[in-house]
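Collaborator request, handled under Task 6.
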Amino acid sequence: MKNILCTLIFLGSFTMSAQQKAVTELGEEVFLYQNGTWKYANVEDEAARVTPVNPDPFFKDEDATFLLKSKVTNVGFWLDPTEWSFQKAKDNPEAEYELQLKGEDLYGMIITEKLEIPIENLKEIALENGREAAPDLEVIQEEYRTVNDQKVLFLQLNGTLQGIKFTYYGYYYSSPEGTVQFIMYTSQGLLKAYIEDCEKALNGFVKI
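Structure tokens returned to the collaborator:
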């Protein structure tokens, strides 16, 4: 399934222009996407919801013994090398690294950039970027978390690409040193089986 998902799913940097606004003849504001689709602009939609805060701290798993370091900004990712394979990204030119749960249909990508973006804006930008490829992309879960002493935004985003129902499950982080998207992805039907693997990998995120 990797080749199909990697061909369809393109998660870009936050500096990309994802959409334009327009007004219809009836005075209704809409978003226009580069793929020719559109969506009504609604201030009450998921981008405008208040994001809750999870009071519980999150820490790296004891089996995560390999630190994968970013070369773009001062962050790293503790991974269990017996469970995960990882390499410099090839399928997504915007990503720094790509990952796969060995022998399984769970994949990951790490997108890093030097630009700082307020963490409060990351949800809206993630939705805009994602809707370039999947106009029906929506927020399923969201919350702020403290992961290894760093504040991150957790999002689960579901969408459809050419009939394939997929999910993004990941962390978004920003600081004066840069912005990070640490994302797991698979089909919606498989996510339940991979939740524990996703959480263990994501909680390896650290500031160096």
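The cover message to the collaborator said: "The two ends are 34 Å apart (CA to CA). Residues 2-207 form a domain with the Protein Transport Mog1p; Chain A fold (CATH 3.40.1000.10). Please let us know whether this matches your experimental observations."
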